[in-house]
Design goal:
InterPro entries: ATP-grasp, ATP-grasp_RimK-type, ATP_grasp_subdomain_1, RimK, Rimk_N, Rp_bS6_RimK/Lys_biosynth_LsyX. Its EC number is 6.3.2.-. It comes from Jannaschia seohaensis. This protein is of the alpha+beta class. It has 3 domains: 88 residues, 3-Layer(aba) Sandwich (Rossmann fold), CATH 3.40.50.20; 121 residues, 2-Layer Sandwich (D-amino Acid Aminotransferase, Chain A, domain 1); 63 residues, ATP-grasp fold, A domain (Dna Ligase, domain 1, 2-Layer Sandwich). Helix content is 32%, strand content 27%. The strands form 4 sheets. The chain has a 5-stranded antiparallel beta sheet. The chain has a 4-stranded parallel beta sheet with strand order 2-1-6-7, with helices on both faces. α2 packs antiparallel against α3. The chain starts with a strand and ends in a 12-residue tail after the last helix.
């Protein structure tokens, strides 16, 4: 296969591993800087150019689109889809997962366990929103935040109200969620590929840190999932429509609750914690699934 990978930094561990895995299995993988692509949106003749070269002949595309360039990255991915190139994850599915509010609404619709989550526009409704979420401690989360950035733990109703009002005064959209105290600063990342959990790790936050992101100094180790957690991860991936994703869960007293579904999960932490060749499994999935014009949404938004 000839594979394009939409990624801006070819030196990242995940991107190097995917390229190595593809080439080890006899495929050609070319890393294409997402922002240097440009498109000819012609009737029935969609085209993509890269540094003056017309991109043709690709069998599959692996989108590793950074959160800061989601809008443009999805436009490029849709163009690939309209050209009949098979995407590892479809543009519509990535768009769902990147919209924290929409993803929570879809997960709730499908009956998947979630922390109590509230959302409002008018700062005058702050007190009602705090009551709906069960009161402090609460997590206030920016809709556009990634890797633990834009996530604040408010210990009291007064501090929660201050944080919410400050964010709303700047026109920033936020979610308010219950704080799962019993999780103890740990969460679970389950890697789902092709409808199956292929690896799982438990992430623990740094000392005094309630966020468990590895980018923020957290640590990871292999973990055995319960049947409920495994089922929750698979259902969350299916709900988003993602073939490959990382499902982040907390162990609450009432069972597994999903915090986020990540369409471009990092491979370094989970490969080193579990010893599993995740990159190889992703390429193996592409080998089985990639067919011309097989995108379900065919580039439709």
């Amino acid at each position: 296969m000839k594979i394009a990978m939409l990624a801006r930094n070819p030196t990242l561990y995940s991107h190097k591993r995917l390229k190595e895995a593809a080439e080890a299995r006899g495929h050609e993988l070319r890393i294409v800087n997402t922002l240097r692509c440009y498109m000819n949106i012609a009737s029935r003749r969609p085209e993509i150019y890269y540094d003056g070269e017309k991109l043709t002949g690709f069998d599959a595309v692996i989108p590793r689109i950074g959160a800061s360039v989601t809008f443009y990255g999805l436009a490029v991915l849709r163009q690939f889809e309209m050209m009949g190139v098979y995407p590892l994850n479809e543009s519509v599915a990535i768009g769902r997962s990147r919209d924290k509010l929409r993803s929570m609404q879809l997960l709730a619709r499908d009956g998947i366990g979630l922390p109590v989550t509230t959302f409002a526009h008018d700062p005058k409704q702050t007190e009602e929103v705090l009551k709906l979420a069960g009161g402090a401690p609460l997590v206030v989360k920016l809709l556009e935040g990634t890797q633990g950035l834009g996530v604040v733990l408010a210990d009291t109703d007064r501090s929660a109200k201050s944080v919410i009002e400050a964010f709303r005064a700047t026109g920033t959209n936020i979610l308010i969620q219950e704080f799962i105290k019993e999780a103890g600063g740990t969460d679970i990342r389950a890697l789902v590929i092709g409808g199956k959990v292929v690896a799982a790790m438990k992430r623990t936050g740094a000392e005094g840190e309630f966020r468990s992101n590895l980018h923020r100094g957290g640590s990871a180790r292999v973990i055995k999932l319960t049947p409920e957690e495994r089922s929750t991860a698979v259902r969350a991936a299916k709900c988003m429509g993602l073939a490959v994703c990382g499902v982040d869960m907390l162990r609450a007293n009432h069972g597994a609750v999903v915090m986020e579904v990540n369409s471009s999960p990092g491979l370094e932490g989970v490969e080193k914690a579990t010893g599993i060749d995740i990159a190889g499994k992703i390429i193996e999935h592409l080998e089985k699934a990639a067919k011309p014009h097989a995108t379900r949404t065919k580039g439709k938004g």
